[in-house]
Amino acid sequence: SIREILNRINEMKLNNEFNPGDNKLLNKTNIYNTIKLLLLRSSNIFYNIDNIYEIIIMNNKKLNDETCKLLLNNISEICPIVLESNIKSLINSIINLSKSIDFEANRIDNDCYHDLKIIYNYYISNGNDEIINNDNDNDNEFHNCLFKFSINGSPKESKYSIKLLNKTSNDIKTPLFTKIVNIIWPLNIDSIYFNTHLSTLSTLFQYDILSVDTIKEDISKYLATYVLLKNTIKEEEDEKDTITWIDDKELYYNKQNVNCLSKILTMKLLTNWLVSINDDLTIDVESVAKPILSMLSSYINRGGEIVSQDDTPENYRSRLRLHAGYQILKLSKFTIFN
User: Fold this and answer.
1) What is the pTM of this model?
2) From the CB of residue 241, how many other CB atoms can be counted at a distance below 10 Å?
3) DSSP 288
4) Taking Cα atoms as reference points, which of 318, 154, 142, 148 lies closest to residue 252?
5) Mind giving me the DSSP string for 38-63?
């Protein structure tokens, strides 16, 4: 922190060979004051509250400015209190933007998930159990905005929208979650929002299992049949050995990669289901977990394919193998799955 740095400077001993009389400006007091001034001038790094307003303005004007979003995200996690007087401005910006978004277009330049994540981190870091309730019309408008993102937004927007709605009171979130599930189930694999709906359901499995309780078995059967066991990803001859990895931007925003993303989101959904029931004594957890763990292991042991046919592109196999391993690591924290 600034205080620790300044304390160290204040306690330092000058070299015996240094004679302050040689230059009256070079003494410990002046060094201390100079360093303090430099630290305060560079206070973006140290989250000075006076800079937050300007950062919020820059963030709202430049939708794809990842520097602002990264800084605000770090602030929301490390020092959320400085966002307190500006969080409403960020919420209003999202509400206004949602009214003009073309949800069917490529969302790489106007995906709001960064801002939703910042808002979520702010409230969670502050230790609030319930947030943004219907205290005024603006709060209600934000709920409607989150509802819209969970149905028609990007997969990441839907994830953080459900997380935020989950932190509202029961009389707000329960009817909204029920309405969301009724809209997106049964799933339509041909829908342009299929992965958004998968992401929404996956997050509901994690945070509100009751909202999907009556359809959880049907969902797992559907995803096993139409997503995991159905390989619509074929490797072309001229693509072999040329691309070995697919980054997040390509995965989430390139329509050619929707099938790969569907498999990854399905893994997350099934893992979240297991985590949500790990301590439920009324369920035979072992019978539910066995086929899911077997599926995840298959992706790892068979080089990124659930059925080894060696016709899935290498970049997809790398991502699928990675995510399968990550899901197993998440489950390994619970002894019942060992």
Assistant:
1) 0.83
2) 7
3) H
4) 154
5) HHHHTTTTTT-HHHHHHHHHHHHH-T
Angle between helix axes 258-277 and 314-331 (nearest 10 degrees) is 10
For the segment 303-330, what is each residue's pLDDT rounded down to a tens digit? 888 876 777 888 999 999 999 999 999 9
Residue 44 has pLDDT above 70, yes or no: no
What's the rounded Cα separation, in Å, for the pair 313 and 305?
10
> Using one digit for the tens of pLDDT, what is the confidence trace for 91-131?
999 999 999 999 999 998 889 999 999 999 988 876 655 55
* Alpha helices, H only, the chain: 2-11, 28-41, 49-61, 66-78, 87-98, 113-125, 137-152, 155-166, 170-184, 194-207, 216-223, 248-253, 258-277, 285-301, 314-331
Rg (CA), the chain: 25
Amino acid identity, residue 312? T
Phi, psi (degrees; rounded to nearest 5) at 173 = -75, -35
**Distance between CA atoms of 284 and 292, rounded to whole angstroms?**
14
Amino acid identity of residue 291, one-letter, is: P
pLDDT at 143: 93
Q: Which two tokens stand for residue 217?
A: 């078995």
The candidate with the shortest Cα–Cα distance to 150, out of 190, 93, 109, 207, is 207
